[in-house]
Amino acid sequence: MTVEEPAQQRVPAPESTPDEILVAGEWRRGNGAPIETVDPATGRTLTTLAGAAATDVDEAARHAARAAADPVWRELPAHRRARLLHRIADAVDAEGERLAALQTADTGKALTETRALVASAAATFRYTAAAVETAEEALTPARGDYLTMSRYEPIGVVGAINPWNSPVASDAQKLAPALAAGNAVLLKPAEWTPLGSLALGRLITRALTELRLPTGLLSVLPGPGRTVGDAIVHHPRVGKVTFTGGTRTGRAIAHAAAEKLMPVSLELGGKSPTVVLPDADLEQALAGVLFGIFSSTGQSCIAGSRLFVARERYPEFLGALVDRAQKLRIGPGGDPGTQVAPLVHHKHRDSVACYVDLARAEGARVLCGGSAPDGDAYRDGAYYLPTVLDGLPNSSRTCQEEIFGPVLVALPFDDEDDLIRQANDSVYGLACGIWTRDHRAAWRIARRIDAGTVWINTYKQFSVSTPFGGMKDSGLGREKGRDGIRAYQRQKSLYWGVSDAPLPWAN
Ligand code: NAD
């Protein structure tokens, strides 16, 4: 990447208004269409933002390229980049309650979940700070009179595009390693949920200013995927895109990346099997299966949305499961007792309802749920009842397509081979849960399942130190773990002659 102009520190206005976006360190109204953010628990408008346009992306990308090339940032040693990440983590912790409440209002998620997501964002910045400070480069074994070493350098400008389901945490998962690796970032949140990402952008910009680093290193550009997202992906200054979202969008981005010969990381959709073996602990499996599908109201890429139960336990397990699903507490995310909060948006609730209609048309039995809840308390919110379906073959659309809502489809299996055949008969390969006391069976199944993550007698546990990503149509590449930073760097080999002897042609 060639950059001629010197980096300029853009000082953010001391007071910015809530309708502004972040373009290379500057808070201002975007040139794009207005974005109305709605509280899905009430239908009330929270904010109307002046969203980004392709022209804002271009300006942000040019400033980002300058900031990334600025020696103040580019030559900053890893332990000082770590200092920035620690400062961001401290700010996220200090503002934790506010960030969680904002995310609950914007996404509808229960406060217990958004608090955990914000804590996980702070932990991601801290872990990545430690990882970058201790990351080692290799002096490779010399095979002649020269030293050989392998180094990692920043890519330059990274485009980070996220969906609406867990904004602040998924932003941290991309921003922390991208900044740690020495890049500048253009972050595009989803249209429905920009507020958490903008709030995080304020904290990061403040930390950059305090440490006298170029504020052009970060832009937060809310706007439609087909204009703003597309402009980021195609911008010549953007050297890598890291994307989380649907498989169809991910595939389109991969095509664009192929044209530019640009690296891309894709965290995509799922239809994850959760498996109850004949010897499973009933109580543990029931709680785990319910949590696996109905937490986050099913709006989770790793939701355990296909349930496979050993045929001999099927009637007993399904009966108990339906009984408990009907007792889950449904309510607004801000209520501490809520287990199943509203969906992110009324339009998304309608799409989930259409899927349940499709299931009925395919011949499913609706064992519970299958509609919005009754009652005045639920009238204005984007609520949908926890729904359990069965009676469909694994080949049905209901069993194959990602619904991304509180909808579980149950299937019996006869033996381990039948289970593996059905569970792997999916375009997706994101996650899997296994409930059993038989450690040998768990080990065998875990290795035979096509999934990037397998949980045994637990589900949806997450650790930033453990790599995460999908197989098959669920994605390309891995996030998290010590090597997560490497996905945002370019590897370079150095050969360093140490002999006084001339090369052969000197003769
Ligand atoms: P989506 O693919 O519609 O949108 C994701 C993001 O991409 C949004 O910011 C959107 O504006 C943007 N976008 C849309 N079209 C684009 C284009 N042509 N070019 C560039 N950007 C574009 O997904 P969604 O509905 O927001 O999110 C739900 C999906 O995300 C589900 O499929 C879910 O499984 C997936 N997801 C995956 C993970 C994971 O880690 N594997 C995590 C969370 C969500």
From TrEMBL:
GO terms for molecular function: oxidoreductase activity, acting on the aldehyde or oxo group of donors, NAD or NADP as acceptor. SUPFAM superfamilies: ALDH-like. It comes from the Bacteria. Keywords: Oxidoreductase. Pfam families: Aldedh. The keyword Oxidoreductase applies. Transmembrane segments: none annotated. The active site is at E267. Residues 27-493 form the Aldehyde dehydrogenase domain. Gene3D superfamilies: Aldehyde Dehydrogenase, Chain A, domain 1 (3.40.605.10), Aldehyde Dehydrogenase, Chain A, domain 2 (3.40.309.10). Belongs to the aldehyde dehydrogenase family. This is Aldehyde dehydrogenase. It comes from Streptomyces tubercidicus.
